[in-house]
């Protein structure tokens, strides 16, 4: 008795399927916002962000990267992190203010412009290698989380100055400017953790996972604050790499060793720079 050969499952379609699911989550968040269910709307945008973070990695693992997949991912980002958060914020916080629609329109347009610039920079072979470690401006998922900050605060603490339509408008405009800015922001996968901090990182991840279930809106606000606080350090790292082309091809461990060596060789440089002083004869 012969058995029929099983059809092989083509896993190369999995990344694009995840992008489509992310689009469904983003669009569904709009529906729940229109039905006055902001909790579900924010949860679906968070789900879309998680799927967005996974689809690219799955594509690389399966060696399933394609031009079509990249275009689907870019369109999904425009919907999930541009259109959906804009509508959710407008319906939940800004429906009573005519200027609110202008603010969310600005945000959605800035997300699209940011994605277009990101796609254009991918094909620019003239950029130094170290620039691949940084985003130009706030990435779309981070922008979506940031713009939802006032809504998270309202859901956690109730009505307050953080839910005032004029404050929300100003916050949305600031987020829009960060999205289209030229500020370098470090990519998460480009951050290396020293081996002796691995156990601490795992403990922090466990705390974050627990907080996602127990205090999700506080976690959103903490994540926004942490991301905004990392920007000056990212700018400093970008500037340092631009000034030291000799380390562009080195691993993070070697880069840290070079930075330590430079600091030891010039112990007074930082204090003199703060005071605006120059070395004699310099």
What layout of secondary structure does this protein have?
Blueprint: H1 14-34, H2 38-61, H3 67-94, H4 98-122, E1 134-136, H5 140-147, H6 149-157, H7 165-180, E2 184-186, H8 198-214, H9 216-243, H10 252-265, H11 269-275
Helix pairs in contact: 1-2, 1-3, 2-3, 3-4, 3-5, 4-7, 5-7, 6-9, 8-9
Question: What does it look like?
Answer:
The chain has 282 residues and is an all-alpha fold. The protein has helices at 14-34, 38-61, 67-94, 98-122, 140-147, 149-157, 165-180, 198-214, 216-243, 252-265, 269-275; strands at 134-136, 184-186. The chain has a two-stranded antiparallel sheet with strand order 1-2. It has one domain: CDP-alcohol phosphotransferase transmembrane (TM) domain (Four Helix Bundle (Hemerythrin (Met), subunit A)). Helix 1 (14-34) packs antiparallel against helix 2, helix 1 runs parallel beside helix 3 and helix 5 (140-147) packs antiparallel against helix 7 (165-180). 70% of the residues lie in helices and 2% in strands.
Concise summary:
Its main location: membrane. This protein has 282 residues and is mainly α. The chain has helices spanning 14-34, 38-61, 67-94, 98-122, 140-147, 149-157, 165-180, 198-214, 216-243, 252-265, 269-275; strands at residues 134-136, 184-186.
Q: Please count the helical segments.
A: 11
CATH topology: Four Helix Bundle (Hemerythrin (Met), subunit A)
CATH class: Mainly Alpha
Rg of Cα set = 22 Å
Multimer state: single chain
Pfam family, one: CDP-OH_P_transf
Protein name: CDP-diacylglycerol--serine O-phosphatidyltransferase
EC number: 2.7.8.8
Membrane topology: Multi-pass membrane protein
